[in-house]
Amino acid sequence: MTRILVTGGAGYIGSTAVYQLLERGYEVNVFDDLSTGHRESIDNRAQFFEGNLLNQSEIEAALVGCAGVMHFAGKSLVGESVQKPEMYFENNVGGSQNLLDAMKVVGVKRIVFSSSAATYGSPEVSPITEIVPAHPTNPYGETKAKVDEMLSARALGDGFASISLRYFNVAGALKTSAGWLAEKHQPETHLIPNVLKSSAQNPLKIFGTDWPTPDGTCVRDYIHVVDLIEAHILAFEWLNDPGHEIVNLGSGSGYSVREIISFASKVLGVEVPFEEDERRAGDPATLIAAIEKAGRVLGWKPQRDLEEMIRDAHLALNQ
Ligand code: UFG
Question: Which end of the chain is flanked by fewer CB atoms within 10 Å, N or C?
Fold first, then answer.
């Protein structure tokens, strides 16, 4: 039996990973400080270690018996990172460094890291391949790029086998035997959950209608959380020799904010009330992933389309 440590296993994406790993026959330790995650999202077949990445000995205790790590824990709000960069560097970079130090002490060498398209900033090229240099435009993206660099360096220095998976826009939900695992962010800043919660009293705000895109609203590449975790499991199984790879995870297609609104209206059969608002600071106009490398290296292709993401997120919200 292979045991994996999932950091951030009480969060939206981490708890989905925990469930899918358990269903696949893995044993799972969860490490989470519950600062943004939810205790009830952790499957009770997993062993839970409540702890903070800033405390290395707590991580070491959770690593005992593990063959590798899926590292999701971290602060993940772009806007908040602009307000509190020190909190982002301390948690995301300092916390990841402690994790790698703890892995070295315990002798665990395989790690799948939750990186982000935010590392790319606003590149001229589209779709974005992994050879596009990291030029993040906010502290959140900077912290993810720093950890990617750290993993490269430590592959050489310490013999870690690592992969950074750069997520584009994760959406959808997972149906488990105990109900849906879904986004429960407080406050919710992501587009699809906000579209689903939109009401006449509290309409969705479209952040900017004058972007250099076909309909003036931002274009993003959405990926179903279940497909995303499938790629993590393939990545973990692929890790073997010391080294570090960067692989994008997206669908390879882009949808504008207006397209998401009209698609959601069609799928759900209701109008989505919205109002046009100012641009949100730090948003790039277009982010679309090139996903050939994920196919080549991991043998992975997304299986679930935008309709399934919207339907699942909707069912989860109304469970
Ligand atoms: N948007 C709106 N109204 C809303 C919410 C979002 O118009 O109420 C717009 C945003 O301005 C953006 C698009 O919808 O143009 C998508 O916004 P999200 O907040 O859903 O996602 P982001 O693209 O900003 O960011 C997400 C993750 C980041 C990650 C990034 C990488 O939240 O962690 O994808 O692509 F870095």
Answer: N
pLDDT, tens only, 269-278:
999 999 999 9
CA–CA gap between residue 272 and residue 200 (Å, rounded): 8
Checking if the pLDDT of 123 tops 90, the result is: yes
Task: Say if ligand 1 is within 6 A of residue 13 CB.
Answer: no
Distance from the alpha carbon of residue 190 to the mean position of ligand 1, in angstroms? 5
Active site residues: 140
| C-alpha distances in Å from residue 201, one per residue of 102, 205, 272, 277, 278 | 50, 12, 12, 16, 19
Q: What is the pLDDT of residue 184?
A: 84
Q: Letter for the amino acid at 56? A: Q
- The pTM for the full model equals 0.97
